[in-house]
Amino acid sequence: MTEPTETGSADPSSYIQPPLRFSGIIASSGRIYSAFLRRVFVPYALFGLFTMLAPVLLDLDIVENVVLPLSFLLVVVLPTFLFSLVVAYTAVLAEGLLTGKNISRSQATDRIRAVRKDVLVAALLAGMASLAFAVLLPLWRLVFTLFLGPPLLIHVVVIEGLDFQAAATRTKELMKGHWARIIMALVAITLGMGLIEITALGLTIGLLDGAGSTVAIIVLLGVRMLLVGFLYPFAAAAGYVCYYDVKAAYEERSVAE
Known about the structure:
Elements: H1 22-53, H2 64-99, H3 105-114, H4 116-136, H5 153-160, H6 164-175, H7 179-207, H8 213-256
């Protein structure tokens, strides 16, 4: 197998070889993750910082009947919305790896800006979906990657340049016959990430027993940023791999017909 490089000069098969089983999704995600982690770590780490600081606003002197909706906005909807935007950025970089284009950060941003209205709608839909899920299941954080658009929609928007309505139709076509497989893969990956994150934060809190409150807050913020910076790009890579896999299957099916 050809060794992939960050410039994307390798054959796409050096990253992904569809059709993929769960082990193939993990392996392919790992290769893409390794190739672009250095370029996406900071946006994800900053996202992690936001998710830690946003709830602090709830401690301010706020009118009581505003607290509940504001908490849902800051803790559920807005984080998922922002994460969807970061995933869109990551998807463009991942596509560059497989097409042999060394896409810069500014070029990736320009790609997203070109379809910004549709990206924002997809991200907002993700936020609304996560809100509904949060009401039904408190452990929504462990499976929120299901709602990045929802599944694969935001990838279709930014990579194929379709408007929201056309992207929604395209996503349904791509996902036909794959919903259960893709959702189960994303759930399993996200649950694994969630367990790692919860365990690491729990150990950190234990080690900080007796430390001053200021020190504890700073350390927890740093650990949270590191965890998100290293873990969440893998989920984003997995989302792109799933998109690439179902797209390859759809194109193969279309040729056969």
